[in-house]
Write a structure and sequence with these properties.
Bound molecules: glyceraldehyde-3-phosphate
Order of helices and strands: EHHEHEHEHHEHHHEHHEHEH
Function: Involved in the gluconeogenesis. Catalyzes stereospecifically the conversion of dihydroxyacetone phosphate (DHAP) to D-glyceraldehyde-3-phosphate (G3P).
Helix content: 40-55%
InterPro entries: Aldolase_TIM, TIM_sf, TrioseP_Isoase_bac/euk, Triosephosphate_isomerase, Triosephosphate_isomerase_AS
Largest sheet: 8 strands, parallel, barrel
Radius of gyration: 17 Å
Number of helices: 13
Main location: cytoplasm
Strand content: 5-15%
EC number: 5.3.1.1
Strand order of the largest sheet: 1-2-3-4-5-6-7-8
Distance between the termini: 14 Å
Low-confidence stretches: none
Structural class: alpha/beta
Shape: globular
Keywords: Cytoplasm, Gluconeogenesis, Glycolysis, Isomerase
Mean pLDDT: 97
């Protein structure tokens, strides 16, 4: 297990309307205690339409839960119908934003170049990007998963100054393990996460790479989180489906008890 503070983030994807978001966040807040927040940073990534409600709840009740968005526009303002900008997310005091999630890459044809622009847009507005990377099944079967993922890391971090790179969060999510119930073996996940840290060391320095948090994502549940978190280069989880069940997500946050 690493010495970096773990980040457990629930990516709700396109689930929960704003009323459900309030109820869900309240349930998490009720279950989690100071002891949990001392050991783990907890974040939720609701849909855009829920963010104001979650912000109101978190600020009103002074909750320690962090929140963020699932995507960000590369542009600050302008004629970009349907997009949500960094200044808008900053105004909602988002701490995090997922960038380059495989579902954005797959369904919205996001390239490494666009993902890099979004990473920079997040930092420009004081929001920490969670840069998502990972290979499709055919890439893994061809044995190219490490080089594929490292190219995404390099593309996503291109021209990023060291003071920003050291605070970025990387989420390694093998696409074939997302929402499928197929978990990447903890050792296999560790292999790629260690390679990601090595790539960051090559791009910046070992000291900087040692500070970066790398999450694993892909069918994380209470039943497998302890083994995943036992790996030296895994510093948290980006949780999809299981984060929609408050009791399950709390168990994931309490991975040391599982
Ligand atoms: O962002 C989260 C990941 O895509 C993982 O989703 P999952 O936990 O439903 O497999």
């Amino acid at each position: 297990m690493s010495t970096r503070t773990p980040l457990m983030a629930g990516n709700w994807k396109m689930n929960l309307n704003h009323l459900e978001a309030i109820a869900h966040t309240q349930k998490l807040a009720f279950a989690l205690s100071d002891k949990d927040y001392e050991a783990v940073e907890v974040a939720v990534l609701p849909p855009f339409t829920d963010l104001r409600s979650v912000q109101t709840l978190v600020e009103g009740d002074k909750l320690a839960i962090k929140y963020g968005a699932q995507d960000i526009s590369a542009h600050d303002t302008g004629a970009y119908t349907g997009e949500i900008s960094g200044p808008m997310l900053a105004k909602l005091k988002c701490a995090y934003v997922a960038v380059g999630h495989s579902e954005r890459r797959q369904y919205h044809a996001e390239t490494d170049e666009l993902v890099n622009a979004k990473v920079k847009a997040a930092f420009k507005h004081g929001i920490t990007p969670i840069l998502c990377v990972g290979e499709e099944l055919e890439v893994r079967e061809a044995g190219n998963h490490v080089s594929h993922t490292l190219a995404q890391v390099e593309g996503g971090l291109k021209d990023l100054p060291a003071e920003q790179a050291e605070t970025v969060v990387i989420a390694y999510e093998p696409v074939w393990a997302i929402g499928t119930g197929k978990v990447c073996g903890a050792g296999d996940a560790q292999e790629v996460c260690a390679a990601i840290r090595g790539k960051i060391a090559e791009l910046y320095s070992q000291e900087l790479a040692d500070a970066v948090r790398i999450q694993y994502g892909g069918s994380v549940k209470a039943g497998n989180v302890a083994e995943i978190m036992a790996q030296a280069d895994i510093d948290g989880a980006l949780v999809g489906g299981a984060s929609l069940d408050a009791d399950e997500f709390v168990k994931i946050v309490r991975f040391r008890d599982q």
